[in-house]
Each structure stands twice: as structure tokens, then as C-alpha cells.
Amino acid sequence: MKQKTIYTCQQCGMQSPKWLGKCSDCGQWNSLVEETVTVTKGKRALPENSGTAPKRLADVTVTTEDRQECGFAEFDRVLGGGVVTGSFTLIGGDPGIGKSTLLLQAAERWAGAGPVLYVTAEESTRQVKLRASRLGVSANDLFLLAENSLEAVLDRARELKPAFLVVDSIQTVFTAALESAPGSVSQVRECASRLMYYAKGEGVPTFIVGHVTKDGSIAGPRMLEHMVDTVLYFEGDGGHPYRILRAVKNRYGSTNEIGVFEMKDVGLAEVTNPSEIFLAERPEDAAGSVVVSAIEGTRPILVELQALVSGAAYGNPRRTAMGIDSNRVSLLVAVLEKKVGYALLAQDVFLNVAGGVRLNEPAIDLGVMAALASSHLNRAIPARTVMFGEVGLAGEVRAVSRPELRVKEAARLGFDCCLLPAGNLKNLDVPKGIKLIGVRNASEALEHLFN
After folding, report:
1. Closest-CA residue to 34 (of 47, 57, 17)
2. pLDDT tens-digit readout, 41-60
3. Range of the domain at 23
4. How far, in Å, are 69, 222, 340, 351 from residue 419 at the CA level?
5. Distance between CA 147 and CA 157 in Å, rounded?
6. Per-residue CA distances from 373 to 20, 309, 333, 340, 380 (Å)
7. Is residue 444 in a domain?
8. Cα of 171 vs its chain's centroid, Å
9. Whose CA is closest to 2, among 61, 56, 46, 42?
10. pTM of whole model > 0.85?
11. What b/e readout covers 47-70, taking b as 16+ CB neighbours within 10 angstroms?
12. Are residues 198 and 293 in the same domain?
């Protein structure tokens, strides 16, 4: 064995034999850190679970016991219906958003199926106990371990044989096999790899918490997100009590599925009907306010969009969007200017998704255009009207997926009118109490609303 020094980028994991001021892969400045690695000649030891023989796909049996619900309905929804045996899950989010709170509350429910080992690498057991007392968490089979050494964690896990393992967080755990500091790319990669082998070999569902960088991505090498089975992001605005758990990768369920929680003094509470929560404080007869029907994963959600159009105070008009892609808003403003005839290019445009939700799908385009037109004309949209549809550059309104789910959710909440693409009217089962208006272009939709 011999040692050598390399320089590793802490953003992307690129390695260089010499120091560079700027990473040649990701372009970050001053991100290369010196690390000492040990080179071992000869064959590398195989992982402990490498002795399995190949199996025919037809011979592999799957039972309902391979997926276990924890009783946290919103958490189970995001995971795809429950926790899969031997799964490896990464949870990221801003500091203080509630990652540890969520896992501690879930661990209490998991403890009913067997012992749960909660490894707290950032706090002492007394600190975790104080938080557990505040949350009302008290389970006899929930074990706490304040340890940073990965070897010690795995030894205690093999002794206890837990049904679930939680490591909070992966950036503070280190292995003695590497001389680099905890949280470095090499340490995060090696610790995650060893935990993955343990989860797959022992069949223990393992959850790890990951810190996030300034731009909101999980810290460490991008390979960390490729190694795990599921990547969950815990999102939320500090000014709102609602938290959204979003699945951006899931090998065992739907991606882009979300779970909605409300942060209270006693912890996180599930929000089973987020549409009613997001629309509870909607102002009446307010220009620039419109309700859109969006699909997040498998769930339809009604959300309020608020737009404000005003004269530009300076030469360059502003385009500010919260909860929606600002480039998409600029595109729709140009369509309103060119295809509908509204003079908006010289106006300041502000758009906000109420409730701190972030919407990504193009089905909200029609709602964005309606909110902008309503604010520009200073005319309110009828309060019980909902809409959805994708708008193209020619001003046409295109059909979107799952229109029936969107319409049923609107009818259930008491909306009596729905504007939707004309292409979605075919073979659509219309619920009682709601009128459907099919539109082919943006001009036709705005005529229905304001003429």
C-alpha cells in the first residue's frame, strides 16, 4: 500500500493530480480540496453480499410484505405506497425545514414493526430526547446512537438487527479507511456506498439525511443521488407553515409525487386535502387572482395564482415570479402582447403561487395568462371558476393529461365553471354541478372571462 495526494472538487467529485483554481468539469472556483488516498495493489475485497447467484426473472417472487406502510399516509404516498425492504433513501432540504422531525415521527411508527436504530451524528442523545418529548415521540423499540464512525454504526446495527436504520446526516459520518475530513466528497461517497451494501445485504430499509448547498441541491457528489433508490426533497417557505415532501427519484413509485404537511408546535401534521388549505385565504373579487388545477404526481391540487401588472418605473420592466419558472412567465407575456393585443411588454409583471407551492407543469399556462389579463384590465375573474391548459407560442390552447381528475377535484370543492382545452372535452365524464367550456386559443378563453 502507498499513499498519494489528489485534489477533489467538493461540488462534482472531479479529481486532479494538482490543485486548480477552477474545476474543469463544473466550473466552480476554489472547490478543489487536498485529500490523501491509499492505493492498494492486488485484488479488491468483494462486498459482503456479493455471493448471490443469478436468478431468472420468472423465479423472483414479490409479495405484499416487501412494502410496508408506516402509518404516515403522506410519507407513504411519496414513497410509492410504503417502504420497500432493503431500500436506500436520501432526504434533503434546507436547514431547519423539518427533515429530522419527519424522520423521528416516522421512526416512532416504524418501531411497531421492530427495532429502529436512529443514528444522530450531529446531536447528542439528550438533544434528540428533548425534541422527541416536544413531539410526543415515545416508542420502546426506538434506539438512539450518537456516533460519527461508520464502522461503529455498522457494528451496532449488526448487533441490534433493526427493522429500519436512519442516519442523520451522511455529511457528518466518516470512515477510518480514508484520511479525508468528514463531509468531503471521498467520505460521503464511501460512507454512502458502505451503507448501501448494508441495506441491500441485510434487507434493512435505510434513510440518510443530506445537507443542501446554497443553490438548493444536495451537497456532495452527484453520484450520491445515483446510488440511492429514492431521493426526497423537503421544501417549504419559512413564512408559511406548510411543508412539501417531493420525490424527484423513486425506483419503486411515481416521481414528482408530493406529500403536504403542516408544521405545528407538536411536529408535522398531515394535510389530507391540500386544495382546501391553499384556497382558504383567497380574496374575493380581486383582480389578478385565478384558481388553476395542477397535477402533482397522482394527486390533483387546486392552487391560487396571483398576478400584478403595473407601469414600469424604470427603463427595463421587471419580471418576477415566485413558485413558477420566470422564463415561462416571460414567454406567456410575449404571447399576450403578440397574439391577444395586450400591451404588457413595457409593464412590470409580478406573479406568485399562493401557499408557497412550486408548480412546474405547463397545464397552468392558461391560468397564468388569465391572471395577467385580469390584473392588466383590473377586472376580477368569477370566484367559482377554475381553469387549466397549456398555451403554445401561436396562442393555441393544447390538451393536457388527466383532465378528468382535475375536473372532479374542482367539482368536489364547489367550483361551477371550468375552462379547459377543447381537445380535452372528448369522452370526458362531466360531474354534476360544473359547466365545462372548451377553448381553442388564448383569445377565446379571455373573451369568455371578460366579455
Report:
1. 17
2. 555 555 555 556 888 988 88
3. 2-39
4. 38, 42, 17, 20
5. 12
6. 52, 9, 9, 10, 10
7. yes
8. 20
9. 42
10. no
11. eeeeeeeeeeeeeeeeeeeebbeb
12. no
